[in-house]
Specification:
This protein folds into two domains: 228 residues, P-loop containing nucleotide triphosphate hydrolases (Rossmann fold), CATH 3.40.50; 113 residues, RNA polymerase II/Efflux pump adaptor protein, barrel-sandwich hybrid domain (OB fold (Dihydrolipoamide Acetyltransferase, E2P), Beta Barrel), CATH 2.40.50. It has nine helices and 20 strands. The two termini are 48 Å apart. The chain is 25% helix and 35% strand. Bound molecules: adenosine-5'-triphosphate (ATP) and magnesium ion. Adenosine-5'-triphosphate (ATP) binds next to strand 2 and helix 1.
């Protein structure tokens, strides 16, 4: 059921207020045709509200919603042709898989034969051929989830919406199911919007991620963009772990440098957009190598405050002149005890220089 008619979803100047509460205000966003975009952000930032606006379950206070070349702002949820998959799959317990998946087509009064064919085709897509007669309580969590996806897919929606579809599932199964969802989305090419709290899930399933904060967009980009080029401390902290510290950018004839506490880091050929003066840096925990030797002028010096063995890596909290830094080191390396003096070595290219904050 591959479609070559994927559509872009565009929200233009969208607002949603509940009484005096402005949940979303003048937001513009594009979900590119045929891609999976994740909405990521803290609880209450407006992710579910945004999905409900796209689905037509919630009317916007202002603004327009376009599916491809069509303004669907005035369309009801059924007219919009969207499929939704929720956190609780909401399968009907008294109906078998075939009836559950075919339910939407029954409502549309399609013929029995047509329904049977469509259901068996879509069950093949989600790798559940032969499960037609099973009841929900005879399925694993993962299989129930795929039935819920099949039920959305059978209506051949223009847009698929997922609201935290995996949050009730244990972490091992979640990993394989997120791959399933990703695979299905790529197989069908249906433009999809996916809400999650879980940043690892967001990075792994998405073509693009939208980081939301308080009803507004902080940044939209590919997972790699957001990790390597966060444009704010909020995004740096939300996507992966990060130490955000203050530093000074100096521009001299021989090249730019960053002054980080007692340490001066020459940027060599690296170009920097920021103006000289105060800047903020994001330091990823995995960018440092801890060494007993170093030069205080070139390497940040610190004292191990505490450490924790967490299996794959050792986590360290290190007191430094620029504040406490969180770092990780491979377990194969020597484990430093609290109180030890260490030098933090890193490559200047690994420093993420946050853009100047606007406004
Ligand atoms: N019907 C409503 N009436 C009043 N306020 C609402 C209504 N629905 C949502 N809100 C408020 O809008 C804000 C955003 O809610 P929303 O459910 O979109 O958040 P979310 O990002 O999905 O959060 P979570 O991650 O916890 O699911 C919240 O402050 C919520 O209290
Ligand atoms: Mg929500």
């Amino acid at each position: 059921m591959s479609r070559n008619t994927s559509i872009q979803v565009t929200l233009k100047n969208i607002s949603k207020h509940f009484g005096s509460v402005r949940v979303i205000d003048n937001l513009d966003i594009e979900f590119k045709a045929g891609t999976l975009t994740t909405l990521l952000g803290p609880s209450g930032c407006g992710k579910t509200t945004l999905l409900r606006l796209v689905s037509g379950l919630e009317p916007p206070t202002g603004g327009e919603i376009w599916f491809g070349e069509q303004d669907v702002s005035q369309f009801s949820a059924t007219q919009r042709d969207v499929g939704m998959v929720f956190q609780s799959y909401a399968l009907f317990p008294h109906m078998n898989v075939e009836k559950n998946v075919g339910y939407g087509l029954t409502v549309l009064k399609e013929t029995k034969e047509k329904i049977r064919d469509a259901v068996s085709r879509v069950l093949e897509t989600v790798n559940l051929e032969g499960f037609q007669k099973r009841y929900p309580d005879e399925l694993s969590g993962g299989q129930q989830q795929r039935v819920a996806v099949a039920r959305a897919l059978v209506l051949e929606p223009k847009v698929l919406l997922f609201d935290e579809p995996l949050s009730n599932i244990d972490s091992k199964l979640r990993r394989s199911m997120r791959d399933d969802i990703r695979g299905l989305q790529q197989k069908t090419g249906i433009t999809s919007i996916y809400v999650t709290h879980d940043q690892a899930e967001a990075l792994s399933v998405s073509d693009e991620v939208v980081v939301m904060n308080d009803g507004a967009i902080e940044q939209q980009g590919t997972p790699r963009d957001l990790y390597q080029r966060p444009n704010s401390a909020f995004v740096a902290n939300f996507i992966g772990d990060s130490n955000v510290v203050d530093a000074i950018l100096v521009a001299e004839e021989e090249g730019s440098a960053i002054v980080l506490g007692e340490t001066r880091i020459d940027l060599e050929k690296r170009k920097v957009e920021n103006r000289p003066g105060k800047i903020k840096l994001s330091l990823r925990p995995e960018m440092f190598q801890l060494r007993e030797t170093g030069d205080e002028k070139k390497h940040v010096m610190g004292t191990i405050a505490h450490s924790a063995y967490v299996g794959a890596v050792v986590e360290y909290f290190i007191s430094t002149p620029v504040g406490e830094l969180f770092t990780t080191a491979p377990v194969s390396e020597e484990q430093y005890a609290p109180g030890r003096k260490v030098f933090l070595h890193f490559h200047p290219d690994e420093l993420i220089i946050l853009p100047e904050t606007r406004g």
